[in-house]
Design goal:
This is DUF3027 domain-containing protein. This protein is an alpha+beta fold. Among the domains are: 79 residues, Nuclear Transport Factor 2, Chain: A; 60 residues, no CATH class. The chain has six helices and nine strands; from the N terminus they run H-H-E-E-E-E-H-E-H-E-H-H-E-E-E. Strand 1 and strand 2 form a beta hairpin. It is elongated and about 120 Å long.
Amino acid sequence: MSAEVEAILLGAAEEARAAIAEFSGEETVGEYLGASSEGPASATHRFLAQMPGYRGWQWAVVVAASPGATHATISEVVLVPGPTALLAPKWVPWEERVRAGDLSPGDLLAPPADDPRLVPGYAGTGDPLIDEVAVEVGLGRRQVLSLWGRNDAAQRWHDGDHGPGSAMARATRRMCRDCGFYIPLGGALGVMFGVCANEYAADGHVVDAEYGCGAHSDTPPPQGAGSPLYDPFDDGVLDLVERTEQA
């Protein structure tokens, strides 16, 4: 960029301000923030934007000039976020926003195409219980859990609220695997997981065999029973006196 062109481009601040005023109104243009070169024939002038809802945003006006020009021309007027601008969070597609627990009665949630958690029912899953049943009744279900899907579920359950690392499990030395309320799952997942049948504990939830809580079937009863022991009250040792009126 020649010195002459640079001087014209960087000296076009007032022309840039006038372009914003024409585009959006004089009241929307704030403090001048400076200019920067964008190449051999263009530069950008920035102004603080004064608009409701755009705190921290800036007006950016791109000006251009070619060698031999006597003035700059306006190429573009845009609003851009400044370093302190409040921006909307990154857009996330709907199917990636759904989380566990979001499903409500009447909602429909189809699995994504080529879901790695599922394989066709005619394919072997590696789980003998599922495969034997599928052979017995024909092709079985149209889709079944894949090995990846089974391992993913196992890891999620192991790391969840009913896994061995949870606060409840760390507070006791007893484990579900030897609890009378523990019902092991069928198939390959039954090696590590079961369902709790204690209504006062994790009733109906899948629990890790190494999970535990204070409602284990082997929990001993508290020492003592009934009300605390007190000495009996014996009114036979009392002396009864007749009350007299004081003079």
